[in-house]
Amino acid sequence: MLKRYLYIFIIFANILFAKDEIEFNTSLVGFYEDSLYKGTDNSFKFLPLIYGRYNNLYIDGLRLGYTYFDNDKLKSAFELSSDFLGYKSSDSKYLSSLEDKKNSIDGSIKISYKFKEDMKFSFLVSKDINSTHNSFNYNIKFDYDVIKNIDTVLVCYLSFDYYDEKKANYYFGVNKKEADIRVNQYKLNNTINKIIGVNYKYYLFKNWSLLSSLKVNFLDKEISNSPIIKEKSQNSFLVGVTYVW
Questions:
Q1: Average pLDDT value for the chain
Q2: Helix or strand or coil: residue 223?
Q3: Residue 164's Cα: distance from chain center in Å?
Q4: What is the per-residue pLDDT across 179-200, written as a single tens digit (0 to 9) for each?
Q5: What phi, psi does 190 have (nearest 5°)?
Q6: Single pTM value for the model
Q7: Would you list the DSSP string of 90-140?
Q8: Does residue 85 contact residue 172 with C-beta atoms inside 8 Å?
């Protein structure tokens, strides 16, 4: 207990006594994503996104974080985010016999290491903190800066998402009481999804930039074989504009 209060004191002391450093920008993006579940529609929506930083506290899109170590090579942070994998039984006839599944709220520790000027390795371990599926999960990511100059940034990445049995079965499994004529009982083991993506930013003129992102999530065979999943991969695409205040 004493150690926990010490950590909290260190964080708030850093906030109170650090020299103020503020960044803030807003984006309006169009976001498309393939649906994972059978009988549900692919989605397209316009979203406002915010990036803001005050000293070591930051908000990045849908992630809230605190950076507790940062130098030229190594960076560490605490983050709060969500997996956004939940669904309602009313979303599809294939889900109608299943219980509603909630989105989790995840507390994460993220460590990033830049081992070359244009290459970065990140490791993230996350824990479901609102008791949705009570699991630990992991992500490993490699970023490569293909282009990085005064007006253009192009980054490619490869990542691996590990879900333990609890999380995999909560979102993609079918237990005995949920099975019916449309969906058979189905149980998963641990899974690893492989993700490739490209992020692009072009600076149009003062304070304005164009951004886009493409991601392909190759689902683990355990997931894609589930009777409620319709594809072997999930594609998503984002395009929009950003204004730096």
A1: 91
A2: helix
A3: 16
A4: 999 999 999 999 999 999 999 9
A5: -60, 150
A6: 0.87
A7: GG-TTSTTSPPBPPPEEEEEEEEEEEETTEEEEEEEEEESSSSS--EEEEE
A8: no
8 Å CB contact between 189 and 165: yes
200: its two tokens: 């692009």
The distance of Cα 175 from the centroid of its chain, to the nearest Å, equals 27
pLDDT tens digit string along 47-73? Answer: 999 999 999 999 998 899 999 999 989
A 10 A CB-CB count for 242 gives 19
Distance CA 121, CA 155 (A): 13
- The per-residue DSSP string of 162-213 comes to EE-HHHHHHHH-B-TTT--SSS--B----EEEEEEEEEEEEEEETTEEEEEE
